[in-house]
Each structure stands twice: as structure tokens, then as C-alpha cells.
Amino acid sequence: MNKLFAYVSLFVCLIVVSCSRSRVGVEPGVSLELAGERKAAVADVRYDLAFKIDSALAVNPEGRIEIRFDYTGDDNPLVLDFEGDSLGSVNVNGKDIANPEWREGHIIVEPEYLRDGENVFVADFTSAARALNRNPGYMYTLFVPNRAHSVFPCFDQPDMKASYCLELTVPYKWKAVSNSRVQSSVTDEKAGTNTIKFEPTEPLSSYLFAFAAGEFDYREHTNGDRTIGAYFRETDRDRLEQLDEIFSQVESSLSQLEEYTGIKYPFAKYDLVILPGFQFGGMEHTGATFYNDNTVFVGKNATASQLLSRAKLIAHETAHMWFGDFVTMEWFNDVWTKEVFANYFAAMLTRKLLPQYDHDLEWLRVYMAAALDQDRSQGSTPIRQQLDNLRNAGLIYNNIIYNKSPLMMGKLAELVGDENFKKGIRKYLSDHAYGNATWDDLVEALSEFTEADVEGFSRAWVYEKGMPGIDVTLRDGQLNVTQNDPYGRGIVWPQTFNILMSDGVDNKEIEVSFDGRESTVTVSVENITDSALIIPVADGRAYGLVTTSRDNLKRIMEDWMLEDGVVASLRSVGRLATLMMLNENYLAGNIETASWLEFLLNSIAGTSDTQMLSALSRYAGPALLDLGAEDAAVFEDKLKAIAETHPEKQARTLALKMLISYARSPKSSGWLYELWSGGESPVLSKDDFTDMSIQLALLRPSEADCILAVQRERISGADRLRKFDFVSRAAVSDTVALDSLFESLRIPQNRLVEPWTLQVISLLNHPTRHERSVKYIRPALEMLPDIQATGDIFFPANWSTALLGSYRSPEAAAEVTAFFKENQDMTPLLLNKVRQAAARLSRP
């Protein structure tokens, strides 16, 4: 009996222990439920981290972490996030945990190891490679949106801000940079290492913690009490001469933001880290902003668009120091709140950085164009999206949150008034300093300074997807403007804009205002006949698919060409808005392709405004692919003529770049080959010649090996050679090798440098290869879940666009349709990326 009783007791104990260890339901990623529970139970988090980084790419860092935190968990287990390679010893409050529970990317600490008040968690571990971005001679971390836990145990959610103390042991010749200043550096010549300890950081969300290490050069700029440092690997002298301008733009952005917000720069230092192959344009790590080298360094013959893009990027990342870093969203469904501010203020700051340009025009050229691109597609989303788990947070990022949201913010500022808007922003920042906030917190702050219906405005613009159709007619002296909701929900978007009418004698400009209630606005118009030319977007404020009769569209295009026409009388922002309206009507099937291309290329030939040239070129290139190669050849000849004879240098550059990217005819190929063989051009950069060589290898497959070999000899710099060797594999003529290259991209390790990988997938699906490359479409789309799981936030969307962007054929559309039919259970946010990328396939 006693022995039986002992067995039964042991069995019951095992059940109790088993139940205790499994009562915490965890899933991969960080669920909204888990995040809420942790936020309520854990406070005052401080990380002390040490890593040993080897120069060998295959050796992942070993690390040790001490996490101090206050805990009030009511006898509940504690869940930390960790998805590294291995977990070693774990100690909590001085007690070793012999067999720590580690599953589904989480470490679960039982209540018996915890106590009320301060707790100390200590662990040894080996990091996983996915967020470490290992390259020959350098590495860098990238944790957005929640990849920090692949490198070290942590609470990987944005509303659990913490202070970080970091120690890095790196190879002897390497430098290291992180969010805070270096506290000490000790060299061990015998071991061939350098151990660098950094000061504690200000409170940071885990996705903002970062470090980089490698063979970097360093330069700094000091003005008064402010020093800005730059770490870089660039060796080209022309590029390095741009550092002074980069420093100047950072400094000006910081000063302007300090003045507007009333808050001094809220972090200890500001460094730039300029990285070859960096996945994004930039990333706003406090104290160590990371930049892509090809974005922040522009070519010798940079266009206005490139110079403006760099300035806006610098202003954008600098604005994040206040909006996103100083005040951070509580949950990634509000990630757009940091991006809307960054782009809204980037546009504001760039006015001072580059005053020689038309920034009202730039506002439309950048934000409106990109927002319309996505909002017109079946993959449109609301600005504020739903998110149940941070593992899907990367899929929230799109052109809606980056480009539609600043348009919305501009309309909101117009609604409440600039001064009231500024007061609301200052209150929002001061109320949530070094903390977290939601969109509702901003609405509340703004509402204190205005009687405008901010909540009603927000319901239409922020919480609903899509854009209105806006139909404009003039009949019997009545101007009728009607909004329609393409999804049948009855939404009316509050907005105000001007419409210009001209009957050849009189011009009349009317302001039309929708308050969000009535879908039709009717205005009596005197002294204007019904046959008047209507310019529905005269001031550039209207947002949506604005339509008039096809006859009116044709007359607008004819008038555009007249030096004394109605369009010519508009401000530049009105002319660009008119161009964008015409493009929307072209994509809606209301303008024929040949007529559209004729209009665009004639406009380029007759325009000297560099910003307008960029906008026209943006529409002309993709339209060339809407025609077959034979029909497009006529327009390629027109581009060649522009490239040779246009009086504006940037027009010649843009025309040449379009030919390099879109030419398919033997005649264009021959002309480009002669240009490339000469090795230089007054309007192109060295990188342009590299791009040309790869395109020529595709257009002249029998000469591909020779072309690529010659170009490789022209390239200097180890990082540039590494990129060329990676990308040029997709330009060879060997179809077996191309199929093998495509198959190799199934392995995450082979697509670590995402910008280069995207160039490869685009080249594999080049228009000259569509007959055979269409077979790649479905398998490449089926790789998207793995692309999401192993890549960074923009990779799924960019992969889809690189894959599908040049296709126009029924065969390609059929492959996409089959993919949707076979993958209905794929994450909806991921399927949306395909819908966005495939929009051109379904053009009427």
C-alpha cells in the first residue's frame, strides 16, 4: 500500500508540475494579448548586454544578458521572447533554472523564481543570424518590427521601453557604433580583439536598439555644442565629398525640429552609419541612424528627384527622433503614426534644406503619386490597420501609411489651422515624453485647440480603405461634383479643392467643399458655357479618381501643349495635379496607350522644369511596357532624340535612364551598346554604366559574357564588386543557370542582401524573357510566407513588385489568378501585397 501510495503521489505531482509548466498558452511572435498582460505586470526594464562578434560570417555571436525589471505578476509565469540559436544557463534572482522552458520563441519563467518588486534575469545564449546582417568586413543589426528577440532574450514589444547597456567584443581592426556614446574601449592585442562598452541609453523600444561593427571609416562635423559623426565604407572621392552637405542637412533638420516642437534633441548623440546593401533608405535608430549608401550618396549627375529624395530621407529619419523614438506607438497597428509625422515634417524641413525647388509640387509628386498607386488597387488598406500579432507587423507597412497618411495630415492641419495644429503636436509630445501613445491620443491633443470635427474626419480618412471616385460635370449652368465610394459603404471623404472652368473667354475658379455628409456638391456658375474646358484639380488638393468626359480629357491634353493655354496659367502644383489626374484616367481605361505616350514624350521634349520632368518620366517608363516591343520602338526613338537634343541636362539624363531600363528594340540596343562601349557620358554616373551593362547583356545575349566581363574590370571597390557579382548572375544567357539561380533563392541565406536580391528577381523576369520566365511567377509568390518570415519589413511587397512589375500578358494574369485560388488561406495582409503588385495586370 505504501509503495502504491508513493507511486500515485509521484504521478499526481508530475501532473501538477506538467500542468504548471504548460498553463501558459504561447504562440510564435508576440500576440496582442501577451503584450497587454506583460505591460500590466512588468515595469522599469533595464538590459545589460554583452556580445562577442567573430569576423567569420558563419559564427553567430555568443552573448550574456542581465535584465532587471519590476514585476507584479500575481503568481503568474513570466514570458520573455527569444528565438536565437541556443539558450545556455538561465538564472533568475540567484536561482539557476536547470531546464528552462523554451518553446515557440519564448522563455517561460515559473512564479517560484519570481518575486514582487525588482527581479534579475540572467542568461547565456547564442544569437540567430536573421537580424545580424553579416557581410565580409562588417555587420549591423536591424530589429524592426520585433526581431530583437532573435538576437537576445527580451520583451520585444514597442510599449516596454528600456535602458540598454551594451558591451561588444569585436575583431581588433573593427569599429563599433550603437545608440549611445562609447564609455570605454580596451584592446587585447594577443587575442586580436577590441572590447567596447557603451553608456546606458535613454528609454528605447526594442526595435530601436541597434549596433553596427566592422571596418568603417569615420568622420565628424562639429558646430557649436553639436557634433554629428558618420561611419562609412565608401571609397569613391566624389561621393565622400558629399558628406559636408549630408552633415549640413542633418544639422538643419535637427534645428528646425527643435524650434517647431519646443523640445531640444532628446538623445545623447547623433551618428550616421552608411551601409552598403542596407535594406531600407534609412532606419531611425536613436544616436545611430542607418542609411543605404546608394540613397544617401548620389551620383555625379544626380537629378533633382535624387537630390530631393536624399534631403527628404535625411529629414524623415531626423523627424523620427521626436516622432517614433521620443514618443513611440503603443502597438504596431499605429506604426503609421510615426511615419505620417516623419513624412509630413520631412516635406516641411526640405523647404529650407533645398529652397530652390517647388515643394508644393514635390508634395504631390512624391506623396500623392505613391498613395494613388496603392489606393487604386484591390490591395488598398486603411491607414490604421488591425494587427493581432507582431509577427505580422511588417505587413502593415505600405504606401498608404507612408504617403496617404501625410496627405491626410495636411488636410487635418488645414481643418484645425496651422497654429492650433502646432499647439496640439507640442502637447502630444510633452504628454508622452520618452513614452508611448496612440492615434487617439493625438486626436485628443488636437481637439483641445479646435472645435473642428477631428474624430469625424479621422473616421473616413484613417479607419477606412480606398479613395473616392469624384465625377465632375457642367450642365445648364450647374457645376455638379459627386463623390462615390468604390466599396459601396456610403463614405464621403471630407475635403476641399478648387475647379477651374474656361470657355475661351472667361476663366472661373470655384472652391468645392465636402463636409463628410452629402455626396454631391452643386454650384451655380454664371457666364460660363456648358462647353467650357474643365480642370477639376486646379489647386492640387483633390484626392481620388477624378473623372470628366473623355472629350474633356482629350481637350486638357491638347491644351497642355499650348504656351498660352489654360493649364499653362495654373501654378505648377495645379499642372502636376492635372498630369496625375490624366494618369489615373489612363489607368482606368479612359485614355489610349499610344495617345498617352505621345502626350508624355512631347511634354518631356517641351519641358525644362526638372521636377516636372521627373513626374513625366515616372509615368512614361511603365507605359512603354503597356505596348508590345514593336509598337514601343517608335517611342524609344523619341526618347533617344530627347537624350541627344534636349537643352536641359537632367532631361537628357532621365531619357537615357528610361532607355536603359525599358528599351527592347534592336535599334535602341545598338545605340546603347555604342554609348556603353565608350565608357563615359557627361550625363551618366559610373553606376549608370553598370546598370547599362546588365541591361545590354539581356538585350544582346550572345555577347552577354563579354559585356559583363568588360564591365567588371571597370568597377573599383570591394563592396561594388560584390554587388555586381551577385546581380550579374541574372544577366547571363544560360537558361539552365538562370533556373538554378531562381531555385537558389528559396534558401534564405541566398537572399540576405535584399536590394540585390530584388534586382535579381526583376532581371529573371525581364520583359525580354517573359515567354519563359512566366513559369517563375507562381512558385515565387508561394515563397512569400518564407520571404516574410526571414526577410525585413518591405521585402514581401518589394519581392512581389520586382516579380510582377514588368508583366502585362494574359498568361501572367492567369498565373496570379491561379495563385490566389490555390492560396486562399495565406495571411490576408500578405495576399494584399500581391494585389498591389499585380494592379497593372488588370488595367482596362
Counted beta strands: 29
Query: Which structural class fits the helix and strand makeup?
Result: alpha+beta
* Cα end-to-end separation: 84 Å
Q: What is the CA-based Rg, rounded? A: 29 Å
Gross geometry: globular
Helix fraction, binned, reads 40-55%
The largest pleated sheet is described as: 8 strands, mixed
Unreliably modeled segments: 1-23
- The average pLDDT value, as a whole number, equals 95
How many H/I helices? 30
Strand order of the largest sheet: 5-4-8-2-1-11-14-13
How much of the sequence lies in strands comes to: 15-25%
Describe the structure.
The protein has 844 residues and is of the alpha+beta class. Strands 5-4-8-2-1-11-14-13 form an 8-stranded mixed β-sheet. Strands 16-17-18-20-19 form a 5-stranded mixed β-sheet. A 4-stranded antiparallel β-sheet has the order 9-10-15-12, with no helix packed on it. The longest helix has 21 residues, at 2-22. It is globular. The model is unreliable at 1-23 (pLDDT under 50).
